[in-house]
Amino acid sequence: MFSSRIFIRSFFFKRNKFADAPNVIRELGKVSKDSYSVPDCIQKPPYYHVLNKQAATVGQIEIKNEKQIEGMRRSCRLAARMLNMCEDVVKPGTTTDEIDKFVFNNIISSNAYPSPLRYCGFPKSICTSVNNIACHGIPDDRPLMDGDIINIDITVFYEGFHGDTSRTFLVGNVNESGRYLVEHNQKALMKAIKICGPGQCFNEIGKEISKYAKEVKLSNVRAFIGHGIGDFFHGPPEVYHFENTINMELMQPGMTFTIEPIYSEGSDELELWEDKWTTSTIDGSRTSQFEHTILITDHGCEILTVAE
Ligand code: MF3
Ligand code: CO
Ligand code: CO
Prior knowledge:
The chain has 5 helices and 15 strands. The chain is α+β, with helices and mostly antiparallel strands. The chain has a single domain, classed as Creatine Amidinohydrolase, CATH 3.90.230. Strands 1, 2, 4 and 5 form a 4-stranded antiparallel β-sheet that branches. It starts with a helix and ends in a 5-residue tail after the last strand. The relative contact order is 0.19. The N terminus is likely disordered. It binds 2-amino-4-trifluoromethylsulfanyl-butyric acid (MF3) and cobalt (II) ion (CO) (2 copies).
């Protein structure tokens, strides 16, 4: 049994350790209430009309046919283009709410729907996770500051398919340890993608990501998983980012799924904040995340979320 006294001590110890991390986010910002108007002509996912609960990620992995694969290529390419466009607005002074509006407008102009909007009740079009916010940050009124790192996670629903991708941007002058964190987190994703192909076991992904974290002396956050994706946002398989024997299935041509590892410069433990979305490291240390949607092909894999 665990002693709550020891827990509290270690909690404060960890908090203090990263007290000097730059620009620690300590509280939620103000989330704007303005309702987005999605034109009638935009095709919407089912949860736009009826609130969904947590998606099912266990069960049979879908093998997509050529037509579905083409659909995935199109939506993923669009998601990647939308993410690249953020380079123009990610700078000190821009609020995450402004980035959200910018991406919303770009997605609607491209005749697509921003998948997070209304998904399990999510209020905005993208996730923006700054510094110690590990995942699912809700765009708010906080202006970006010089030295921040921010993950922008974009998913679009386009012609019936979802495409999901994210990356961590540097805002102005990020210190060396921040740049190190982001660089090696991105490398971890690319290393994991490299080993994917037909006949490969899904648990090799997590092995690769945790092995690399040890090599570069960063913490591997285990709380979030990659997922199957298609005409659904989240589905089988569950892709664990740590060493495991939970998912021993083998990859097959026609499978599409995401890989989205998170690394931390401090603790790998997260806490959920009161909006029931935002997760922060428990010690305020910064995290980085990168995500691609990939397709298993006959001879290896293809990264679908590239802009060309
Ligand atoms: N894009 C996220 C992922 O990689 C999911 C965001 S769901 C939301 O799976 F509701 F938070 F938007
Ligand atoms: Co995502
Ligand atoms: Co995802």
